[in-house]
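re: ur question from earlier - yeah i can do the single chain one, its not a big deal. heres the input i used so u can compare w yours
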Amino acid sequence: MRTLLSLLFALLLTGCASINLEHDFDPNRDFSAYRSWRWMDKAFVYQPDDARLKSDLTEQRISQALHDQLEQRGLRQTGASQGDLKVQVVLSVDERQDQITTQYGGWGGHWGGYWGGPAFSETRRLDYKVATLQIDLYDAKDGKLVWRGSGEQLVSSQALSPAERERTIRETVTQILAQYPPH
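and the output i got, formated as tokens:
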């Protein structure tokens, strides 16, 4: 059985899978005033807090992709006690369930009444995992959340090479931060 880490990033970061993106922000903030950023004291949060999800390699890939994207948006990384924004990344895996009902048989007509074979339904339960990468930006002065972006997708069982993980993490972070700063 694959570890949760493999499932998390194989699903979350599979390049061919679609990512559901969400963004939210405080409309009362002047985002042009933010010029620098630093990491929160707890830069990465895992939900569930499971050692199998944690990976220094994944954190390095996300950190570099995030650094590059924020720099492209005019935000430079600063030391631990400086910066206009504090950044935190949340990685989560949720187990979800769907029920799929399929109906078979039974034919009929409008004028001649019901005719044909017996009708029956089959309901199946589909268990799956959804991985989410969330990026939170907090105002460093008051500690309030000013912007949040997240990407969520189904976890795939396909194993990724380190190069594929690097590429898909970059793509995911780029898509999440595409709406920063808000317009």
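The CA atoms of residues 11 and 131 lie 7 Å apart. not sure if urs matches, ping me
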